[in-house]
Amino acid sequence: MKVLRTIAAIAMVAGMTPAFAGVYTDDLTRCLVEKSTPADKSSLVQWMFVAMSQHPSVVSLTKVTPQDVEKINSLAGELFMRLLTDVCAEHSKKAIKYEGTGAIQSSFGVLGQVAAGDLFANPEVAKVMSGLEKYMDSTKLEALAK
């Protein structure tokens, strides 16, 4: 389980760091993205949110309990295992065999990006994010472009 935890944690940030993506990693990534259901992607976003909510700079903004953390970790663990060992098992085996365990990190990083993209595309989320505009000085921003 320690290996799965490490891979899962790294997968959250894998999209932020450059990584080698060979043909087998690409195949695994494609499988994960194409075979993940909207519910799977939602579960992944929930897991990322719960994990990030534990950071000291935001923990006071959420009401995530230790029981919530345990439940979401359990659900995410099941999701990771189902995708890796059932849905995309052949792709997982080949990617690990030929390109190493970094293939898992890279592939789940892309899946995380896709899932987060779905999150940010939600009209309610976009509405909150667009609220930032009223606190920005368009004159100063335009001056940057000159």
Tell me what the structure shows.
With 146 residues, the protein is mainly α. The chain has one domain. 75% of the residues lie in helices and 0% in strands. The protein has 8 helices and no strands. The protein is globular, with a radius of gyration of 18 Å.
What secondary-structure arrangement, pairings included, does this model have?
Layout: H1 2-14, H2 23-35, H3 38-52, H4 66-87, H5 89-99, H6 102-121, H7 123-130, H8 138-144
Helix pairs in contact: 1-6, 2-5, 2-6, 3-4, 3-6, 4-5
Relevant terms:
single chain; 146 residues; mainly alpha; 8 helices; globular
Largest sheet, if any? none
Count of discrete structural domains: 1
Residues in β-strands, percent: under 5%
Q: What oligomeric state do these chains adopt?
A: single chain
- How many strand units? 0
Mean pLDDT: 88
Q: Residue ranges: pLDDT <50 for 5 or more in a row?
A: 1-6, 13-18
Spatial separation of the terminal alpha carbons: 54 Å
| Helical stretch tally | 8
Structural class label = mainly alpha
Roughly how many Å is the radius of gyration?
18 Å
Percent helix among the residues?
Answer: over 70%
Order of helices and strands: HHHHHHHH
Approximate shape? globular
